[in-house]
From TrEMBL:
Keywords of this entry: Cell outer membrane, Membrane, Signal
Pfam families: SusD-like_3, SusD_RagB
Family of the protein in this entry: Belongs to the SusD family.
Species annotation: Hymenobacter yonginensis
Ranges for domain SusD-like N-terminal: 24-226
Localization of this protein: Cell outer membrane
Protein name as it appears in the record: RagB/SusD family nutrient uptake outer membrane protein
Highest taxon listed in the record's lineage: Bacteria
Gene3D superfamilies: 1.25.40.390
PROSITE patterns reported for this sequence: PROKAR_LIPOPROTEIN
Length: 512
């Protein structure tokens, strides 16, 4: 196991970093435990502190619950599960009837603030550590800048205005601050990623494989700029990655989602998961999606066969073009054979929570050891195909933009990536090119937890969240699937009620 698999875990949580927690601040320095007063003294301390800043990514405040649940608010999946009170927090998202106590929103807010405050402490303490290798010190600071930007990017996209901390709060007066305008939060994210690009190495090896690189920072910065409406800058940073990172697309789409290919040729940044550690625990080091998304009662996974959440919607499945190899990687469809030893031999036409027999297959790896929520398959946060599509959207149907999207499309249909295809390539005559790019993102990045954020980026257009999901809800009702209809308030999540109660300076998002 590499150190990038977050082996150091969450030992810094004892420092009381979560905003809005209402905890007392210590006035004395304990001598029998790790604290920020007796810890940041050596290079090893610095590296461990940075590693702890990564660890929140693996938990339910990020990829083990909150971010995959965002797909349920988009047009690719519905809740699934066992019905009734099973997964009520997902049903609330599905129905756009989201209380301020919603578990998913609470976890996302809290997880991001834990992670970014750990990064803040690194940025405060590490510069003062004497005797460090200058290159390691620079790298540690770059990793913290990258991680602070990543956590804030998720916060600002999900909640809008959020409190902005660039140094650790030293007392309650610095914890209980108002929300900062989203535009200012984006400026900080962009500055952090620019600084991270300058501080980070281009690659790692051995025990450090999986840490953020300068190309991870460049790719995320391209995505941030696109989200912020700055297409020129988004294109500039996307080109940096495409032309200089040495990354290339896997010839086969499914190669992105194999354990043996983790941190591989197409990957820019991944959440590092490890198997062999978990029971029923989403805050450990294994990914729970193998169990949560697998067909319910199928016997394909350790806990008796999957829970059947995050169910692909019928029109999403039918929307795949004929010959698109991504479908078989992403979706269980009726008739798909199960691994030997499963309770049933193949996917059924109907299953609990899945009336049309579809389930998410992309994160399925079967029975891992004897543990339960314990997949070691990494989750890609950013890969090269995403950057190609960012470039295509940023520059439009130019020669450059068409080349970028067509590389992704050719791979999807099993064609040579660099060989033009009259049958599959988009051209300058393709109508509604931006719509075509958005559609390509839908199928290329399906169940990689981007779709809700993509629909939000198109707010105010026919492909935006509200019109798209209003149409989707009407369609699902024709299939006797009930789903709520969003309004403009659902462009953001509610600020958790626990944070509102603790911090009188916070103002709730309109409509909640």
């Amino acid at each position: 196991m590499t150190i990038s698999k977050y082996a150091c875990g969450a030992f810094l949580l004892s420092l009381g970093l979560l905003t809005g927690c209402g905890e007392k601040f210590l006035e004395e320095t304990p001598s029998d435990q790790i604290t920020d007063a007796n810890f940041y003294r050596t290079q090893d301390d610095a590296i461990q502190a940075v590693t702890a800043s990564y660890s929140e990514l693996t938990k339910e405040g990020q990829y083990n619950l909150a971010l995959w649940a965002m797909d349920i608010m988009a047009d690719i999946s519905t809740t699934g599960g066992g019905g009734g009170s099973d997964g009520i927090e997902y049903t609330q998202l599905d129905d756009y009837n989201i209380p301020t106590t919603n578990t998913v929103a609470n976890r996302l807010w809290g997880g991001c603030f834990i992670g970014l405050q750990r990064a803040n402490i690194v940025l405060l303490k590490v510069p003062n550590i004497e005797g460090m290798d200058p290159a390691i010190k620079q790298r540690c600071l770059g990793e913290a800048q990258f991680l602070r930007a990543k956590y804030y990017f998720d916060l600002v996209r999900a909640f809008g205005d959020v409190p902005l901390f660039t140094t650790p709060p030293s007392g309650p007066a610095q914890v209980y601050i108002p929300r900062t305008p989203a535009a200012d939060v984006y400026r900080q994210i962009e500055q952090d990623l620019t600084d991270a690009f300058n501080n980070l190495p281009p690659s790692y090896s051995g025990a450090d494989l999986g840490r953020a690189t300068k190309w991870a920072a460049a790719g995320l910065l391209a995505k941030v700029y696109l989200t912020d409406g700055k297409k020129t800058e988004a294109a500039q940073w996307a080109r940096q990655v495409i032309n200089n990172s040495g990354k290339s697309l896997w010839p086969n789409y499914g190669d992105n989602f194999k354990i043996e290919n983790e941190n591989g040729r197409e990957s820019l940044f991944e959440v590092q998961y490890v198997s062999g550690r978990n029971g029923y625990e989403r805050n450990n080091v294994g990914f729970s999606g193998n169990e949560f998304f697998a067909p319910r009662g199928s016997g394909t996974t350790p806990a008796g066969g999957g829970y059947g959440f995050n169910i692909p919607e019928p029109d999403f499945v039918s929307g795949y073009e004929a010959g698109d190899t991504r479908k078989a990687v992403t979706i269980w469809v009726p008739g798909d054979p199960y691994p030997a030893g499963s309770a049933t031999p193949a996917q059924l036409p109907q299953a609990p929570g899945s009336p049309f027999g579809f389930n998410c297959k992309k994160w399925f790896i079967g029975k891992v050891n004897t543990n339960i929520w314990d997949s070691g398959l990494n989750i890609p946060v950013l890969r090269l195909a995403d950057v190609y599509l960012i470039l295509a959207e940023a520059v439009g149907p130019t020669t450059e933009g068409l080349d970028a999207i067509n590389k992704v499309r050719r791979r999807a249909f099993g064609l040579p990536i660099n060989t033009p295809s009259a049958a599959r390539d988009l051209t300058a005559a393709t109508p509604n090119f931006n719509d075509a790019v958005l559609r390509e993102r839908k199928y290329e990045l399906a169940f990689e937890f981007d779709r809700w954020f993509d629909l939000k980026r198109y707010a105010g257009t026919p492909n935006g969240l509200v019109p798209r999901m209003t149409q989707q809800s009407a369609f699902l009702r024709t299939l006797n699937i009930q789903r709520g209809v969003p309004t403009d308030k659902n462009l953001v999540l509610p600020i958790p009620q626990s944070e509102m109660d603790a911090n009188p300076a916070l103002v709730q998002n309109p409509g909640y």
